[in-house]
């Protein structure tokens, strides 16, 4: 068997060769651009031989280890992805259309981000993608294109087909790694002969060229295993195929997946997961690799930033730290608005409470008010960690209190009452200035302390990692909440209160829990914000902020966790980054934006890009509500609710006919 | 006692303005069950349009028209502001609310918030971020009626408000269109079956409600003399409280609620420093919201509304 495998690998069959060409070119080009044009190689060289790194790049051991981990993760994940995609290809997607997709969705962002900065580059990408979708749909309608259904290709795989799949995966991994190694070798030889490659690195070049294909073989194997886990396999027939452990596990997998196939209401969504899916952007199998790459990028961003973007790392890290608090706020509001369906327009009140709790305790304010001796600042810094929880609990308590009067109200009235609270709380904080220092706000709030890290309001990197940890915890908590009994109770309340109450859901407790849980997360964000800003003042909290938080949830996708994260980042970029950057660009007379702004100022005197922020938000909210109410990344449930199903549902055969056999797709229509 | 009466009079004038805005809220809610967040901003646009019309008529901050010309200016400006706001209201309904008429309730609510944001920024772009002064063209004299002093502007405010409210009440009770509006508010489908053009009636409702807000903007500018792009939000919220207090969906209730809220607001200025820091005046928004919350908790149908059971 293994000799057969080797032959097949080195001289793949003709159709496999076509697949290999298709996928290797598709993946190699972006990876090569990243490595050679956007300093991927620079990172590797800095790790291997720190002395040859450029002047502004970090060379301390911790940074080197972090860079090494990132590079290893990145390249290994890409090789496995190559193997997976080659294995998962079902031939429904042409080579050229795939390459066009890679061009638009992978290469274009790389180039734009490299040349015009991360945020504006991504914003430009989004605009171009929207135009591309529109144009593509238009062209497709004109040519009467029908997308291939996932279901017809749902087939059972017998042992030989599984072997072919595994062979393809191994071939994909191996040949991708080899091709990449060869390209890199050639590039490095060119560098060497033009003198830009230090000779010490030659040894590394040779090692790498030999190591990559070997790694490719094993990673391809791993990819094959991952791809096979996502397929259906035949019942073990009576004789068995040499009944051993692998057969056992395949039998177990296939039964579970067969049940999923036969669940008629979810067949179309599940089909995406069941078949090896070769639409690379939507394949949920490939999506886990994209997630790994994204998490690695985000986690190691402070190290990579000098390589990728040059100067200004600190400013960028600080602004991402700020963006993080929006994410947590969006997650919290998602619980109230998204899961439980209680439209909360006063969410900023809980955020303010969280800020003021840590603000008062973490500074001399409380000790001034109570007339006790101030606590030593070092101890005060350590108090941040328990107070993170404390502020969250206080905010949750107030959430319950403020939610209590609203229990009997319907959607619109609830919105107004919460809006009222959102107005009252900042007024209270402003006017009770014996305790809260009124308009001046609290100053001198301590930053947190951690072992061995020098931490103050001007060091952005520790705050960046802190907010990442908080976001990870919040996402975990949210997912667990959503999938728990409480989460289902919230969804039941959202859909129909009376029916939920009739089914035994305790309305009062569940709603109060929703308010409390939502307020909890905003308390966490509040404490973080007070520490990062070093102070808390009532000017930071207004109804405008509540609207922004609501916009985050709505734009991202009500009730969907990845959706609100994306929504928070989008809204934050529009709010703080894009408009401000457009303004700075427009004040530079040599820039294109300068002319645009001058032209507009002739008509509207008061115009600056910062001024039209609310206008943009308003237009976006109205447009999204009319055209895409489920948001950018909708939760699956929401998409079913808010859109009448306009696409043809796949026909499914009667429920005791196995998929793949002839009579399968004839009778039952899926609603 | 004299102080109390004086406060009452002050409350009446502010209450009249609140009542006009509250009527718009209550009419829209009665007919399509939507809280029109943008209504307060229509009021703000009304003030801006009034200033613009004054400018067109050549009235600066220092000119003093007299006699018939003064009356003509007032009438033209008032009608102009009402018309402009009415058109704006109809356009908003057509663009932002009608496509969402069959969506779950959260969609038009968020759309309304979006429209409110747009209008605020339009105001900001149009007239900038500073306070804009209103031409003080109405002769402002104080008249003493026994223990209380009332200014002529206040009388004008109350007179205009009362005229408009009477006209509205007449229209709703005695004309065909008014009857159609009440029918659509009661049961939209049955009204359609009876031959009422529901879309047109809803548009007319928005037209009238926004016109009233425009008139409110005009008299607000005359009384307070200055305006800025964010007054719509706060005043709108207080007016909404008034509508809820009186019983939302009920026109007389909105008028009553408006006056009551005006009086309560003026009474809150009497609260001394010892009870609330900085005196009651700084807390008046908080007091109004506290009232709103209390009404919604204890009597959600408002003073004049009927308690309707929620049907499954």
What does this molecule look like?
The complex is a heterodimer of chains A (671) and B (312). Chain A has 28 helices and 4 strands. With 671 residues, chain A is an all-alpha fold. Chain A has 3 domains: 16-301, no CATH class; 312-541, no CATH class; 562-634, no CATH class. In chain A, the strands form 2 sheets. A two-stranded antiparallel sheet of chain A has the order 1-2. Chain A has a two-stranded antiparallel ribbon with strand order 3-4. The longest helix of chain A has 35 residues, at 159-193. Chain A is globular and about 75 Å long. The model of chain A is unreliable at 1-9, 150-154, 234-253, 263-278, 644-657 and 663-671 (pLDDT under 50). Chain B has 312 residues and is mainly alpha-helical. Chain B has a domain at 21-230. In chain B, the strands form 2 sheets. In chain B, strands 1-4 form a two-stranded antiparallel ribbon. A two-stranded antiparallel sheet of chain B has the order 2-3. In chain B, a hairpin with a 2-residue loop joins strand 2 and strand 3. The interface between A and B is large, with 52 and 53 residues.
Which two chains share the most extensive interface?
A-B, 52 and 53 residues
Structural class by helix and strand composition of chain B: mainly alpha
The total of beta strands of chain B comes to 4
Whole-angstrom Rg of chain B: 20 Å
Secondary-structure class of chain A: mainly alpha
How would you briefly describe this protein structure?
Chain A is mainly alpha-helical and 671 residues long.
SSE topology:
The complex is a heterodimer of chains A (671) and B (312).
Chain A: H1 2-10, H2 14-37, H3 40-48, H4 61-88, H5 95-116, H6 118-142, H7 159-193, H8 201-229, H9 245-262, H10 267-274, H11 284-299, H12 301-309, H13 313-339, H14 348-361, H15 365-370, H16 377-382, H17 384-403, H18 411-431, H19 433-436, E1 442-443, H20 460-482, H21 485-495, H22 497-502, H23 507-533, E2 535-536, H24 543-556, H25 561-586, H26 592-603, H27 613-627, H28 636-642, E3 651-652, E4 668-669
Antiparallel strand pairs in A: 1-2, 3-4
Chain B: H1 2-32, H2 39-56, H3 67-97, H4 106-127, E1 132-133, E2 142-145, E3 148-151, H5 152-174, H6 176-186, H7 188-193, H8 198-224, E4 226-227, H9 231-246, H10 251-268, H11 279-282, H12 284-298
Helix pairs in contact in B: 1-5, 1-8, 1-9, 1-10, 2-3, 2-4, 2-8, 2-9, 3-8, 5-6, 5-8, 6-8, 9-10, 9-12, 10-12
């Amino acid at each position: 068997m293994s000799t057969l495998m080797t032959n097949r690998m080195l001289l793949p069959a003709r159709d496999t060769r076509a697949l290999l060409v298709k996928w290797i070119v598709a993946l190699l080009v972006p990876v090569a651009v990243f490595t050679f044009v956007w300093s991927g190689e620079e990172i590797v060289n800095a790790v291997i031989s720190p002395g040859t790194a450029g002047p502004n790049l970090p060379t301390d051991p911790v940074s080197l280890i972090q860079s090494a981990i990132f590079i290893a993760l990145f390249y290994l994940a890409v090789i496995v992805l190559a193997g997976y995609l080659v294995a998962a290809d079902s031939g429904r997607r042409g080579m050229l259309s795939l390459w066009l997709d890679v061009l638009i969705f992978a290469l274009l962002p790389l180039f734009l981000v490299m040349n015009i900065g991360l945020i504006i580059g991504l914003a430009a990408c989004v605009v171009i993608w929207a135009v591309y979708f529109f144009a593509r749909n238009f062209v497709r309608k004109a040519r009467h294109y029908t997308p291939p259904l996932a279901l017809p290709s749902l087939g059972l795989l017998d042992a030989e087909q599984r072997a072919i799949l595994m062979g393809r995966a191994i071939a994909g991994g191996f040949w991708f790694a080899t091709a990449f190694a060869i390209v890199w070798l050639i590039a490095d030889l060119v560098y060497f002969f033009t003198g830009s490659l230090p000779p010490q690195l030659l040894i590394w070049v040779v090692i790498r060229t030999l190591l990559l294909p070997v790694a490719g073989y094993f990673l391809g194997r791993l990819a094959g295993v991952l791809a096979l886990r996502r397929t259906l396999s035949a019942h073990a027939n009576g004789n068995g195929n040499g009944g051993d452990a692998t057969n056992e596990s395949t039998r177990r997998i296939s039964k579970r997946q067969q049940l999923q196939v036969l669940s008629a209401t979810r067949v179309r969504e599940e089909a995406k997961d069941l078949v090896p899916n070769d639409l690379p952007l939507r394949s949920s199998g490939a999506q886990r690799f994209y997630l790994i790459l994204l998490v690695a990028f985000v986690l190691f961003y402070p190290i990579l930033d000098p390589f990728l973007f040059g100067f200004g790392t600190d400013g960028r890290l600080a602004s991402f730290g700020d963006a993080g608090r929006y994410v947590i706020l969006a997650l919290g509001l998602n619980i109230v608005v998204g899961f439980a369906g209680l439209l909360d327009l006063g969410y900023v009140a809980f955020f303010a409470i969280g800020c003021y709790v840590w603000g008062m305790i973490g500074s001399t304010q409380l000790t001034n008010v109570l007339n006790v001796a101030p606590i030593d600042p070092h101890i005060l810094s350590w108090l941040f960690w328990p107070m993170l929880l404390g502020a969250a609990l206080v905010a949750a308590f107030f959430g319950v209190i403020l939610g209590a009067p609203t229990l009997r109200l319907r959607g619109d009235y609830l919105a107004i009452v919460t809006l009222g609270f959102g107005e009252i709380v900042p007024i209270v904080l402003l006017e009770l200035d014996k305790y809260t220092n009124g308009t001046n706000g609290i100053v001198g709030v301590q930053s947190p302390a951690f072992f061995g890290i020098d931490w103050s309001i001007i060091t952005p990197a520790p705050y960046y990692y802190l907010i990442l940890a908080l976001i990870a915890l919040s996402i975990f908590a949210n997912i667990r909440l959503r999938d728990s009994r409480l989460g289902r109770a919230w969804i039941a309340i959202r859909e129909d209160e009376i029916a939920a109450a009739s089914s035994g859901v305790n309305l009062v407790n569940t709603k109060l829990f929703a308010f409390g849980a939502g307020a909890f997360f905003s308390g966490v964000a509040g404490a973080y914000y007070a520490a990062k800003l070093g102070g808390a003042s009532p000017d930071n909290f207004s109804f405008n902020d509540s609207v922004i938080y609501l916009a985050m949830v709505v734009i991202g996708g009500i009730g969907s966790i990845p959706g609100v994260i994306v929504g928070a980042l989008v809204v934050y970029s529009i709010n703080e980054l894009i408009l401000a950057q457009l303004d700075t660009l427009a004040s530079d007379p040599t820039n294109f934006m300068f002319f645009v702004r001058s032209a507009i100022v002739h008509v509207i005197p008061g115009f600056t890009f910062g001024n039209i922020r609310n206008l943009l938000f308003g237009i976006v909210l109205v447009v999204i509500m009319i055209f895409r109410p489920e948001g950018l990344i909708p939760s699956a449930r929401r998409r079913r609710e808010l859109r009448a199903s306009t696409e043809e549902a796949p026909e499914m055969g009667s429920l005791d006919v196995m998929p793949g056999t002839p009579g399968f797709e004839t009778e039952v229509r899926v609603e | 006692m004299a102080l109390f009466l004086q406060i009452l009079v002050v409350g009446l004038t502010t209450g009249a303005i609140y009542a006009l805005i509250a009527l718009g809220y209550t009419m829209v809610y009665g007919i399509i069950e939507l809280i029109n967040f943008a209504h307060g901003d229509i009021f703000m646009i009304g003030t801006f349009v009034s200033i613009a019309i004054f400018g067109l008529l050549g009235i600066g901050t220092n000119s003093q028209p007299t006699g018939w010309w003064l009356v003509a200016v007032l009438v033209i400006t008032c009608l102009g502001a009402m018309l402009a706001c009415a058109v704006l209201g109809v356009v908003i309904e057509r663009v932002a609310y009608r496509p969402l008429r069959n969506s779950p309730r959260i969609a038009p609510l968020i759309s309304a918030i979006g429209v409110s944001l747009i209008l605020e920024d339009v105001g900001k772009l149009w007239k900038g971020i500073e306070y804009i002064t209103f031409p003080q063209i109405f002769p402002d004299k104080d008249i003493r009626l026994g223990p209380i002093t009332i200014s002529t502007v206040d009388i004008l405010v109350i007179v205009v408000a009362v005229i408009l409210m009477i006209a509205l009440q007449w229209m709703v009770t005695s004309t065909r269109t008014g009857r159609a509006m009440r029918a659509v508010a009661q049961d939209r489908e049955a009204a359609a079956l009876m031959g009422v053009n529901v879309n047109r009636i809803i548009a007319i409702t928005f037209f009238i409600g926004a016109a009233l807000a425009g008139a409110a903007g005009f008299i607000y500018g005359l009384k307070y003399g200055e305006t800025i792009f964010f007054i719509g939000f706060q005043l709108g919220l207080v007016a909404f409280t008034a509508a809820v207090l009186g019983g939302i969906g009920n026109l007389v209730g909105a008028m009553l609620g408006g006056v009551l809220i005006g009086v309560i607001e003026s009474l809150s200025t009497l609260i001394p420093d010892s009870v609330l820091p900085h005196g009651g005046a700084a807390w008046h928004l908080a007091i109004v919201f506290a009232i709103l919350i209390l009404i919604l908790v204890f009597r959600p149908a408002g003073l004049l509304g009927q308690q309707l059971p929620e049907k499954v």
